[in-house]
Amino acid sequence: MQILDLSYCENISERELVLGSAGVSVEGQAVGTIEAYVFTDTFARRLRSGGAIAIGRGVAFASGGNPTASIEVAGEGDLVIEVNGSRFLMSKKAAIAYGIVVAIDLPDKKSKN
Question: For position 91, what pLDDT does the model report?
Answer without folding.
Answer: 82
